[in-house]
What does this fold into?
Amino acid sequence: MSLATVKPRIRVIVDNDFSGDPDDLYQLAHHVLSPSVEIPFVIGSHLRVGDGFDPSEVQAENAVRIARGLLDLIGSSIPVVQGSNVGLTDAVTPIDTPAARAIIAEALRDDTELPLVVAVGGGLTEIASALLLEPSIADRLTVVWIGGPEYPGRPKPPGIDGSEYNLRIDIPSAQAVFASSVALHQFPRDAYRQALVSLAELDLRVRPHGELGHRLVTAIDLLSEKLAGFGVLGGETYCLGDSPLVLATALTTTFEPDAASSAWELRPAPSITDEGEYGPVPEGAREIRVYTRLDTRLMFEDFFLKLERWAASRP
It folds into this structure.
């Protein structure tokens, strides 16, 4: 078996806030370079109002532009669809966007048997809206989400005050998704924070590999310079916290496909409070998969080698 012979065996809709933390660029590039994944389209989504990464009122539009630029650099024609520039007002009222309608249309396709995953590295606005607009799609897809705080019994990072970043982008949408019946695989903060790479790795294993490698590392260079201007010293590592989306979709076992080298547990889906914390478990709540440990060796080594392979194939 060779990577060159691998065919798609899963459909993945990539939904991310590409005008924010540059970890989403690494995740998108990795997914596009993974031949077992068919990406019908990418969604550019919003951040929280006034977010320091992009304080504009057109965050989703900016996300589309940035994602399109990266895909063009890779040489990919995958469409990019714009999500809402704002979050839901409550957990029962959808926002009817082209992105939400595109999710519905993809979920309702009857011309393919490839399983469908909506891989979300930011807020849950678009998948929540899709589920509210067309509840019947809940049993036709799986949501894989980077977000949510630690569960009880797991330590929080030092100095943490307030809810988790991605959940806080759109709390009502998280309330809607957790209350739905859709299959949900979650990488909460204590899991995705394990996705650490060293700057030495980025310098030696990403930066030299073509325009794409340079673009990816430059995004972190620019962020480091910005942080230094505010007196924040970034140290020698960076968290590529969205990369577990690739681990859970492209990098699964040959037989009984699963992210078998990472650890997870089943938990009854909690409610989400208005403050962005876990609330009581509703009666009859479904079980969701919650990841606790990542196979970061597989995840990052696969990315480094695929990037090197891509660069070597360029004219």
